[in-house]
Specification:
single chain; alpha+beta; Aminopeptidase; 2 domains; 9-stranded mixed beta sheet; 5-stranded mixed beta sheet; 7 helices; 35% strand; elongated
Length: 239
C-alpha cells in the first residue's frame, strides 16, 4: 500500500470517473478542494484506491484482496488510534470488492446502511425557475460564492439554507437545512430552487444523496427534479 502525494492525486481520477455514488465528494479530495488522504495499490499505475475524508472512506477499483487486508490493518493500527470518532462510514464503490470487504472487515462492520442516490433531470427542474415570483413579502434570498450556498431569510433570521458541502468533477453535493419552525411550508424547495439555478449558472451539476430513513430529503429531491437511481450499501464500521 502507498500513500499518494497530493501532487499525484490525478493518478486515481480514472478509477473514480464512473462512480455513481459520492462522485463530487471523492473528487473534491482528488482535485484538492477538500483535505483528505488517498491510499493506492501502486504509486505509479494504481488500479485500486481508498480515499479518506474525515470519518468517511471510499474504496474503488479492481479486485485486490491484499489491498483490502492492508486497508484493514491501516484502519486498526494507524487511523483509529489517532481519531476521536468511534464510528465511520465505509463506502465500497465497486461491487467486485464487496465480498472481500465483508469478509476481511467482519469484525469492524456493525451495520449496513442504505444510501439513496439520484441523478439530476434539467427538464424536470424547469418548473422551479420561477422561484423569485413565489418569494413571500419580507423574505430575501442571499447568495454566496465560496462555498456556493444560498440562505432564505425572514428579516435577519435564516429560514432555510442550501449549500454545496463538496464540489468536484463538475458536480456539487447538496446539503439542505431548514429552521424547524419553518418546516413543511415549502421554504426548503425555494432555497433549493435558488441554489440549483445558481449552481447551473456556475457550471456545476447538482448532486443529491441521502440515507434511506431521510424520507423528507428523498421526497424533496424528487420534487426538485432528481431521478432516483439504485440504492447503495454503506458499511457502518466501529473501531
Amino acid at each position: 500500500m502507498f500513500t499518494l502525494e497530493k501532487s499525484h492525486y490525478e493518478l486515481v481520477m480514472a478509477i473514480f470517473e464512473d462512480a455513481t455514488n459520492s462522485k463530487p465528494v471523492v473528487f473534491s479530495v482528488i482535485e484538492g478542494n477538500t483535505d483528505g488522504k488517498i491510499f493506492v495499490d501502486n504509486d505509479k499505475n494504481p488500479k485500486t484506491a481508498l480515499i479518506q475524508l474525515y470519518d468517511m472512506f471510499f474504496l474503488k477499483g479492481e479486485t485486490n484482496r491484499d489491498f483490502c487486508e492492508n486497508i484493514f490493518n491501516l484502519l486498526v493500527n494507524e487511523v483509529f488510534p489517532i481519531m476521536d470518532e468511534e464510528y465511520f462510514d465505509f463506502y465500497c464503490l465497486s461491487d467486485n470488492l464487496r465480498d472481500d470487504v465483508e469478509e476481511i472487515f467482519a469484525s469492524l462492520i456493525h451495520s449496513k446502511l442504505v444510501r439513496k442516490t439520484f441523478t439530476f433531470d434539467r427538464d424536470k427542474f424547469e418548473r422551479h425557475r420561477g422561484w423569485r415570483e413565489r418569494l413571500p413579502e419580507r423574505y430575501t434570498m442571499d447568495m454566496f460564492k465560496g462555498p456556493l450556498s444560498v440562505k432564505l431569510k425572514l428579516d435577519n433570521e435564516v429560514v432555510s439554507e442550501c449549500s454545496a458541502v463538496f464540489a468536484g468533477a463538475g458536480q456539487a453535493e447538496i446539503s439542505v437545512r431548514t429552521n424547524e419552525k419553518y418546516r413543511k411550508q415549502g421554504f426548503a424547495a425555494l432555497a433549493c430552487a435558488a441554489f440549483i439555478e445558481e449552481c447551473l449558472s456556475e457550471g456545476y451539476i447538482p448532486n443529491w444523496t441521502c440515507w434511506d430513513f431521510r424520507e423528507g430529503s428523498a421526497e424533496l429531491a424528487r420534487k426538485m427534479g432528481f431521478v432516483e437511481l439504485k440504492d447503495d450499501i454503506v458499511y457502518g464500521i466501529k473501531k
